[in-house]
Design a protein that fits this description.
Structural class: alpha+beta
CATH class of one domain: Mainly Beta
Radius of gyration: 33 Å
CATH topology of one domain: Immunoglobulin-like
Helix content: 40-55%
Distance between the termini: 100 Å
Number of strands: 16
Strand content: 15-25%
Largest sheet: 5 strands, antiparallel
Length: 466
């Protein structure tokens, strides 16, 4: 081959993202999304300010290693409950996904919720889809600067408030307010407020669908949880094809057309920019915006609603009605998920109900294994690390059993403040002639004087020298 015929081509492996301009839509599913935004944000922003027992209702005090959740105080030793909660959450997600696809993504995912909020602000400043496209294409002007600047100013304020609230779950939020006003926040508090605010501003303001399409792992493994009886946002091809434009009231059947007028509004309202008419795609977050806008078009054309609707692959193929769809929702996978989920939730409830608010570790003093006192007793010294997990001050009585004549000589009463730990030295004695030399088992019983139902029993070893 001669040098004249050699051609060099540069192939880019990177495809720049095309900006998506979702069109505003109204309808019953849009109302559900608004309701979920209001509910989730009321919980997130409101719980941090809810008082409970002279403290914050929900507070994760990492410094003191205490998690306050309403009337419960959890310590590092309570990691079993966190494990239960995470497993329950995972199975709940599997359960919901198997039934209704990515409905969580479309209505309650933080990325979706904050993107929705940011898009509301964007619409207030820049208008709907056509005006936003026109504004972006327009040359720099005062109108463009103030609209873009105002939008970003509000975005930043929302992001900063979100970051502040997030940190307020780890530092008491009223204390955090004082620190912020005095410009006296710690380095870590400042970092997390700004980092969380930056993440909110960047993800909801700029990355948006990129997070759902490329960063979220849920989009990648959701297909494992889908089957042909999973409810998904679906386009009815048998009814809609062949698509094409027509005048209102025209006999489209005579023109060999389907119900789809090919208006492309379902594409314009999609926050991830897909065409639902191409079938199920992993980018679809199940927000149902396309259902709302298609129903609006069907109403205008005097066609029946439901060209795009929640349905299943089997239902579309076999033309099932809702009664048949509901009958196929209860299938083996759903039954298994339901049983496991109910068992886990029941286990969590039972574990919380029988949770002992008193935890005690008994440690024998190894510096002095045993000693003879007053010429007639053998004494062992123990340290009782007592954890009072309730928020009321308690006084505890310590008794011991397991050996003839064994008694607590010193340290029989221990007082502990609410939600605190205390280490107390306890001396235990037995008569010299009551037992043989060696190691013997004894049991400590620690009981609250204020509430006798709070009690625990711990095993220990009593050493008798030869």
């Amino acid at each position: 081959m001669s040098e004249a015929t050699v051609e060099t081509r540069v192939v880019s492996l990177y495809q720049s993202a095309k900006k998506i301009y979702p069109k505003s839509v109204s309808g019953r599913f849009a109302n559900w999304r608004i309701a979920m935004v209001l509910l989730t944000q009321a919980l997130f922003y409101g719980l941090a300010w809810l008082p409970w027992n002279d403290r914050q209702a929900v507070l994760f005090d990492l410094t003191a290693r205490k998690f306050y959740v309403f009337g419960w105080v959890f310590w590092p030793q309570d990691i079993l409950y966190l494990t239960f909660i995470l497993i329950v959450s995972a199975y709940a997600l599997f359960f919901v996904t198997a039934i209704a696809g990515r409905v969580f993504c479309g209505y309650a995912c933080p990325q979706t919720v904050y993107t929705e909020v940011f898009m509301w602000v964007e619409s207030w400043f820049e208008g709907d889809r056509a005006r936003r496209i026109k504004l972006d294409q327009a040359p720099l002007s005062f109108n463009k600067v103030w609209r873009k600047g105002g939008k970003h100013a509000v975005w930043v304020l929302i992001a900063l408030w979100t970051g502040f609230t997030f940190v307020g779950y780890f530092t008491p939020i009223q204390t955090l307010v004082s620190e912020v006003l005095a410009l006296n926040t710690s380095g870590w508090e400042t970092f997390w407020i700004l980092f969380y605010a930056f993440a909110t501003w960047g993800n909801a303001g700029f990355m948006r669908e990129q997070v759902c399409k490329y960063m979220c792992p849920y989009a990648r493994f959701q297909s494992v949880m889908f089957d042909r009886d999973t409810l998904i946002v679906s386009y009815d091809q048998s009814r809609g094809e062949p698509r094409g434009g027509r005048k209102k009231g025209a006999d489209f059947a005579a023109k060999n057309l389907g119900a789809c007028v090919d208006c492309s509004l379902c594409v314009q309202v999609c926050p991830t920019g897909i065409d639902i008419r191409d079938g199920l795609q992993y980018e679809c977050i199940g927000c149902s915006a396309c259902i709302d806008v298609c129903d609006t078009v069907m109403d205008k054309m005097a066609y029946p609603r439901g060209l795009i609707r929640y349905s299943t692959e089997n239902a579309l193929e076999k033309q099932w009605d809702w009664k048949a769809i509901r009958a196929h929702l209860l299938r083996p996978r759903i039954v298994i998920y339901s049983v496991v989920l109910l068992a886990l939730m029941g286990g969590l409830v039972v574990a919380l109900a029988i949770r002992n608010p008193l935890k005690v570790d008994v440690i024998r003093d190894r510096r002095v294994l045993a000693r003879e006192v007053e010429g007639q007793f053998i004494e062992n010294i123990y340290t009782l690390n007592l954890m009072n997990t309730i928020e009321a001050r308690q006084q505890f009585r310590v008794v011991v059993d397991g050996l003839p004549g064994v008694v607590v000589k010193r340290g029989g009463l221990i007082e502990a403040a609410g939600a605190s730990t205390v280490a107390s030295s306890v001396s235990v004695r037995i008569p010299v002639e009551s037992v043989k030399a060696g190691s013997h088992s004894i049991h400590f019983t620690i009981t609250s004087i204020d509430d006798p139902s709070i009690s625990t029993r711990e095993k220990a070893a009593f050493y008798v020298p030869k």
